[in-house]
Amino acid sequence: MKTKINIQTLAKELNVSTSTVSKALNDSHEISEETKRRVLELATKYQYSPNPHASGLRNNKSKTIAVVIPEVGNSFFASVIKGIESVARVKGYHVLIYLSNESFEKEKMILENLQLGRIDGLLMSLALETQEFSHIQNLLSQDIPLVFFDRVPQDIQAQKVVTNEFELGYKAVHHLWESGCRQIGYLLNGISNSTLNLRQQGFLKALSEKNIVNPETHIVEIPKEISDATFFQLLREKSFDGVIASVEELVTPLWLACKSGSLTIAQELKVLSFCDFPLATVLSPTLTTVKHPAKEMGEKATELLITQIEKPKKTLSFQSIMLHSEIIPRESTQLLSKTIS
């Protein structure tokens, strides 16, 4: 049977203490360069690597952070995870990812289970169904470091990383207006959260400033199972010459609806979508989008969390950190030559 190599094995063969081996492997200034070299050479020979969980038990840290996200189906959260993992890896932390699938009950269960396990901190974006926050308050009462990102609760004191959604909703209207649109629609898919609410408020403010009567009537909810023909007919009835897709998931049904009714995007209907997903530059015409700093959001949130973990006595500031997104103009918002009749 192969002998298990551990820190005691290395210490015995080198005739030094286990403490010396541990400090050498952690590049401690207390250990001479010669001793570090001998320890590392022997560790390499035996293919030995320290157990991060064992070292975590000694300092009451697991070097593990949990991430709770509502979905991975769109490009935004995939990019956020890349940012989280890039910072965590450099800092020596493991990342555990949990999906709430937009369910309040599943989100609640995840947080309850995390309180029983060994994590050093939590990064979290709320599920769509989450409207009350007792499960989050319970977690905070256990002094578990927590940072929210993107979808955040307004009434809970915690560090948050968000984007300028109100401003983006406002600027999206102005972008379409400057390209000739006067009947601008805002398409919803029946969901609501802090992020989407701010976009919608910005949209309504911009229309009001353009002296549009009853701007709320320009907001249209698109049922999940809507047919292409029905979607197309809705666009005609509203006489929209420009629309804003509030979420990435509406782009494909919108494209199919326009195709089914021979409605030419960019020429007859301008389209702007939130979230700059990869296929935006492949579509014909290419799609004008809002580019969110998703990877940067993941990086910033992780940096804040690790600071909380490693400097728990430091006085925390609970204000939101706002990152700035931008509109990326493409062919779908070129100047219109004619409108829907």
How would you characterize this protein structure?
Mean pLDDT is 88; it is low at 336-341. The protein is of the alpha/beta class and 341 residues long. The chain is built from 12 helices and 12 strands. Helix 8 crosses helix 9 (194-209) and helix 10 (228-238) crosses helix 11 (251-260). It folds into 3 domains: 7-50, no CATH class; 64-161 and 294-323, Response regulator (Rossmann fold); 165-292 and 327-333, Response regulator (Rossmann fold), CATH 3.40.50.2300. The chain has helices spanning 7-14, 18-25, 33-45, 52-58, 75-91, 104-116, 134-141, 165-178, 194-209, 228-238, 251-260, 294-310, and strands at 64-69, 94-99, 121-124, 146-149, 159-163, 184-188, 219-221, 242-245, 270-274, 288-291, 320-323, 326-328. The strands form 2 sheets. Strands 2-1-3-4-5-11 form a 6-stranded parallel beta sheet, with helices on both faces. Strands 7-6-8-9-10-12 form a 6-stranded mixed beta sheet, with helices on one face. It is 42% helix and 16% strand.
